[in-house]
Amino acid sequence: MEVWNGAEDLPIYGFIIRATIIYIYIFMVVKILGQRSMVSFHPIDFIFAVIIGDVVGEPLSSGDIALGGPLAAASFIAGLHLTLSYLALKNARIRRIVEAEPIIIINKGHILVDEMRKAKITVESLMMDLRLNQASDLTEIDYAILEPNGQISVIKKSKYDSLTPNDMMKAPPEKGYPSVLILEGKINYANLEKLGLTTAWLQGQAESHGFKSIKEIFLLTLDGRSKRIFVSGHTKKSIV
Predict the structure, then answer these.
(1) Residue 55, φ and ψ in degrees, nearest 5
(2) CA dist., res. 27 & res. 29, Å (int)
(3) Predicted structure pTM score
(4) Which of 84, 113, 160, 196 to pair with 67, CA 20 to 30 A apart?
(5) How far apart are the C-alpha atoms of 56 and 54, rounded to whole Å?
(6) If we measure between CA atoms, which residue out of 120, 102, 103, 100 comes closest to residue 44?
(7) How many whole angstroms separate alpha carbon 240 and alpha carbon 205?
(8) Mean per-residue pLDDT for 51-74?
(9) Distance between CA atoms of 147 and 47, rounded to whole angstroms?
(10) Hey, which bits of the chain come out as E strands?
(11) What are the distances in angstroms from CA 106 to CA 74, 115, 147, 228?
(12) By the 8 A CB rule, do 69 and 5 touch?
């Protein structure tokens, strides 16, 4: 029980057990709260991560602190975070409070200096973000918006947009989602069954690409629509 209640002379294995418990706990909390892309890391998510890290990190550095209190506090914070996220999803007013609104930095090609100062963005930082958006030429930009997640999105003037097949009155075939059928020499039977294919067909594809055995293939994917196959072994690669 000293692992849970804490002790001044907590042995090393006690810290290891505590670290395992906290890792599993954090993993379960993240799964319950739902995943969110790191690109869309909102301020409320940052606050939650900092507080949770501080609360559950204390028992890992101090063996005399009981685990029950920090885990209970972390559970309450996680529940509060989940409640705020749910309310923000359902109510626009709460969403404006919890999540920041987009800020227009460039409007119709004109830099809004006051908005830049409000967002605490320097010219150097703005130029860097524009370069990352493949928009280094300011004359091509119509709008630049600071999104709630801290990223800057760019809308170019129509005449500088990239040419698309639709602009050329072309209708290329639709792309599908590539499903992994072989990974590191092992067959993904779930994807194979989902696509209505057999191991005999897969073996035939391996041989047609010059592989004697499926075990020689590092990765094989199949596009669900175009039926385009990508095959890569440890020494060679081919796409059909």
Answers:
(1) -70, -50
(2) 5
(3) 0.60
(4) 84
(5) 6
(6) 100
(7) 10
(8) 84
(9) 18
(10) 103-107, 110-111, 141-146, 152-156, 178-183, 186-187, 217-223, 229-233, 237-239
(11) 41, 9, 13, 42
(12) no
Q: Six-digit token pair at 194?
A: 């989902």
Structure-token pair, residue 77: 């914070």
Answer with the residue of higher pLDDT: 9 or 158. Answer: 158
Closest listed residue to residue 161, CA positions, set 143, 149, 178: 143
Q: Which of 156, 197, 163, 200 is nearest to 179 (CA)?
A: 197
Start-to-end Cα distance in the chain: 60
Q: What are the pLDDT digits (tens) for 191-205?
A: 999 989 999 999 999
For the chain, the residue count is: 240
Return the half-sphere exposure (C-beta side, CA atoms, 13 A cut-off) of residue 237.
Answer: 6
For the segment 36-48, what is each residue's pLDDT rounded down to a tens digit?
544 456 667 778 8
Q: Which residue has the tokens 């594809």?
A: 205
Q: Which residue has the tokens 């509060």?
A: 80
- What single-letter DSSP state applies at residue 99? S
Beta pairing class for 103-107 and 229-233: unpaired
Helix axes 68-90 and 12-33, enclosed angle (nearest 10): 10
> And the tokens for 177?
């989602």
**What is d(CA 56, CA 19) in angstroms, rounded to the nearest whole number?**
10
Question: 227 — alpha (psi -120 to 50), left (phi > 0) or beta?
Answer: left
* CA 145 to the chain's CA centroid: 21
What is the full DSSP assignment across 204-225? HHHHHTT-SSGGGEEEEEEETT
| 102 phi and psi angles, rounded to 5 deg | -60, 145
